[in-house]
């Protein structure tokens, strides 16, 4: 073989060796890529995190009328106007009943003290009211009586308004519970005891107008508690029973509520009048025995019948007519506010 052949042979072998090296290198690169660690993709976390429910805890709050979402709601709409209606109704009832009650109270005290008879005292007071009304209506006795019944009715109305506000009930709703009895009795007792103290000093037998003794105040207190209970608490309880007893024809002329409002305050005077007379006698006559002729018991028994009738005539306007007027005026005006 010549030199040229040898050279060609060496080039061919060298080329084959280069090709093998390239193949080996490529195979190595393939293996390296095959065994290399693959890239791990980071998992995406959900952007919405589920809310963990709060454990429910049982509460001991009692259900409240008018409660929404656990929040107490009070009926405070037009509260100022409602209080104004309470005062207006109480004033209307007070103005209506004060004249006749002033005359009767004055007559009973003057009759018990011996200063005047019951009939003559009523006659004189009626003359003054008809002939000199300005003098009668501006007098101290009339002002005392008006203040007494205005305060009593306004307290009762205010309790009804407070109850309907707190319980979120209709504004025309009335109550007959213990709170109303206690509040109304307290107001009536305070005003009535002051009135009785002034009336006894004005029209009693003692010229010196000495202080009213404590036993008289105690008897007047029991008397007024009986009257208040029979005027504000018994009528709502008695009315349903009267409703069952009354015929349809009678219901056309008078409702069971109105009948109960008239009957209960009048009937209780049969029990409360002796207490009233005894209290007056303790003030008018000192050192008098309890039994025997012209004793305290005899004086009370002597005046009991006519004084009971007179006090019925006084109580029917005060808590009968006055109660009906107060109730109806308040209900009608409250219905307009509610409407």
TrEMBL record:
<feature type="region of interest" description="Disordered">
    <location>
        <begin position="1"/>
        <end position="52"/>
    </location>
</feature>
<feature type="compositionally biased region" description="Low complexity">
    <location>
        <begin position="36"/>
        <end position="52"/>
    </location>
</feature>
<feature type="compositionally biased region" description="Basic and acidic residues">
    <location>
        <begin position="1"/>
        <end position="34"/>
    </location>
</feature>
<keyword id="KW-0812">Transmembrane</keyword>
<dbReference type="InterPro" id="IPR038781">
    <property type="entry name" value="C365.16-ike"/>
</dbReference>
<protein>
    <recommendedName>
        <fullName>Sequence orphan</fullName>
    </recommendedName>
</protein>
<keyword id="KW-1133">Transmembrane helix</keyword>
<feature type="transmembrane region" description="Helical">
    <location>
        <begin position="137"/>
        <end position="156"/>
    </location>
</feature>
<dbReference type="GO" id="GO:0005739">
    <property type="term" value="C:mitochondrion"/>
</dbReference>
<keyword id="KW-0472">Membrane</keyword>
């Amino acid at each position: 073989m010549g030199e040229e052949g040898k050279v060609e042979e060496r080039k061919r072998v060298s080329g084959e060796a280069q090709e093998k090296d390239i193949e080996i290198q490529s195979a190595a690169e393939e293996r390296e890529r095959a065994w290399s660690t693959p890239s791990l993709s980071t998992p995406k976390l959900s952007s919405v995190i589920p809310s963990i429910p709060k454990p429910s805890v049982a509460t001991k709050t009692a259900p409240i009328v008018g409660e929404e979402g656990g929040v107490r709601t009070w009926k405070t709409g037009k509260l100022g106007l409602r209080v104004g209606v309470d005062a207006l109704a109480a004033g209307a009832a007070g103005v209506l009943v004060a004249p006749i009650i002033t005359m009767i109270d004055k007559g009973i005290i003057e009759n018990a003290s011996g200063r005047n008879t019951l009939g003559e005292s009523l006659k004189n007071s009626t003359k003054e009211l008809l002939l000199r009304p300005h003098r009668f209506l501006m007098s101290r006795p009339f002002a005392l009586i008006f203040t007494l019944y205005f305060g009593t009715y306004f307290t009762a109305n205010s309790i009804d308004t407070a109850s309907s506000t707190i319980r979120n009930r209709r504004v025309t709703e009335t109550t007959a519970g213990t709170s109303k009895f206690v509040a109304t009795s307290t107001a009536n007792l305070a005003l009535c005891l002051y009135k009785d103290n002034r009336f006894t000093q004005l029209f009693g037998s003692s010229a010196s107008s000495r202080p009213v003794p404590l036993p008289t105040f105690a008897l007047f207190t029991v008397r007024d508690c009986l009257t208040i209970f029979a005027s504000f608490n018994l009528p709502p309880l008695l009315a349903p029973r009267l409703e069952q007893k009354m015929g349809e024809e009678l219901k056309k002329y008078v409702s069971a509520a109105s009948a109960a409002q008239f009957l209960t305050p009048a009937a209780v005077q049969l029990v409360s009048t002796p207490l009233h007379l005894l209290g007056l006698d303790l003030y008018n006559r000192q050192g008098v025995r309890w039994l025997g002729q012209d004793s305290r018991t005899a004086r009370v028994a002597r005046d009991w019948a006519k004084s009971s009738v007179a006090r019925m005539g006084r109580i029917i306007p005060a808590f009968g007519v006055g109660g009906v007027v107060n109730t109806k005026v308040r209900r009608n005006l409250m219905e307009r506010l509610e409407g």
